[in-house]
UniProtKB/TrEMBL annotation:
Protein name: histidine kinase
Known catalytic reactions: ATP + protein L-histidine = ADP + protein N-phospho-L-histidine
PANTHER family with a match to the protein in the record: HISTIDINE KINASE 1, TWO-COMPONENT HISTIDINE KINASE
Domain Histidine kinase: 192-404
Organism for this UniProt entry: Pedobacter paludis
């Protein structure tokens, strides 16, 4: 065969072309395809070529005739028939150059010394022309048949399919990596924010309590109550925010169970804390905890604080909030009920979703995470949190297995 006009240019190729060559090399079927087309046609050289407006580059080759072109090798674009295929995007098939009226004096076979030739376009799913699947040989071969052209077309489509699949995988991996980095940054931000907020918040709360003890003046007491109330709400927001980050980014809310948790004591402590915030409110309690419960007391307290805080916040000051709790041989049950407006059906359907809120008064703004966190704590205990609402009363009920 005649001399080959090419040079190895992998290091000087644009990143996109290097990526294409690398992608083709990752398709295991390509090597088999190139070998099969040569065995089926009797031709000695086959290749997958990346063809652009100004480059012809071999992505993969099968060479039994010492043509000398290897992956990354480049032919001068204008010396190839693939350049013409790029323009009209139709297959070119030649059994015998010497007997072909169109190609007998064509510069390409004269330059490269082949007599038989077949090349079909490789078109990607988005309609973009990628390049060609081609084969050549210095001797004539019968390749202009429906069977051979059909085989090449099928293989070209298969290569395009695999290339598109690899491209989609690459895009998905890139997006996943970006999402992971964003998630990590978000988690770090929330954790640092929560930690940095707690210190000044604790100082504010402690100062408010000290102020109330030192000065019994009514005005000072009212201001102290406002500060304590705001501090309590802010602490709840921080807890919910951190738990949301942990639940969404860290695989769920974690709990540490105690086999015989004193839930009566846990619930009473929460009620006493909230009575300090809402001293004018009436809270009726009915506890009947006859069976020991395996639970995380701190998490149950957090759940109860969210429910009771909502009940006190969303009901009239003159109304009474009812808290009932019991345990039997099967389950622990906690119910927090308050009179007030009925929760709309549309709101009920998304009440336990994060950042979901119903009708909110201007002085009762929040993140909308409290009920979501409460439901996640219930789920972590193997239980559930339900809600029922009528024009007379709204009730949130927690039920968890006694030994879960």
């Amino acid at each position: 065969m005649a001399s080959i006009y090419y040079l190895i240019i992998v290091k000087n190729s644009p990143e996109s072309i290097l990526s294409d060559i690398n992608a083709i090399s990752k398709i295991p079927a390509v090597a088999n395809i190139l070998e099969i087309v040569c065995q089926s046609t009797g031709m000695g050289f086959s290749a997958v070529a990346r063809v652009t407006e100004d480059r012809w580059i071999a992505c993969a080759t099968f060479d039994q005739i010492n043509f000398g072109l290897v992956p990354g090798g480049e032919l001068v674009l204008e010396t190839t028939i693939c350049n013409e295929i790029r323009e009209h995007q139709k297959a070119v098939v030649i059994d015998n150059v010497a007997e072909d009226e169109k190609y007998a004096h064509h510069h390409t076979p004269l330059m490269y010394g082949f007599q038989s030739y077949i090349s079909v376009p490789i078109t990607l799913r988005n309609g973009k022309f990628f390049g060609t699947l081609c084969a050549i040989d210095p001797n004539p071969h019968k390749v202009d048949t429906p069977q051979t052209i059909g085989m090449f077309t099928m293989f070209a489509d298969l290569i395009a399919f695999h290339f598109d699949a690899l491209d989609q995988v690459s895009i998905s991996e890139q997006r996943l990596q970006e999402e992971l980095e964003i998630s990590q940054l978000r988690e770090q931000f929330i954790a640092i924010l929560g930690h940095d907020l707690r210190n000044p918040l604790n100082a504010i709360s402690n100062s408010a309590q000290l102020l109330s003890r030192l000065n019994q003046e009514e005005r000072v007491q009212r201001l102290g109550d406002v500060i304590k109330n705001s501090s309590f709400r802010m602490n709840g927001l921080i807890e919910n925010m951190l738990d949301f980050a942990s639940g969404r980014l860290g695989g769920g809310i974690t709990i540490t169970k105690t086999p015989d948790e004193d839930l009566g004591k846990v619930l009473t402590q929460v009620i006493e804390e909230l009575k300090m915030i809402y001293p004018e409110r009436s809270i009726k309690t009915t506890f009947c905890l006859d069976y020991p419960v395996s639970a995380d007391g701190k998490r149950i307290a957090q759940l109860f604080s969210n429910l009771l805080g909502n009940a006190l916040s969303y009901s009239d000051r003159e109304s009474e909030v009812e808290v009932t709790a019991f345990s039997n041989k099967d389950e622990f049950n906690l119910c927090v009920a308050n009179p007030g407006k009925q929760i709309p059906t549309a709101t009920m359907e998304r009440l336990f979703q994060p950042f979901s809120r119903g009708e909110v008064e201007p002085n009762k703004q929040g993140l909308g995470l409290g009920l979501y966190i409460a439901s996640e704590i219930a789920n972590a205990h193997g239980g559930k949190l339900d809600v029922s609402s009528t024009p007379e009363k709204t009730c949130f009920t927690l039920s968890i297995p006694i030994n879960n």
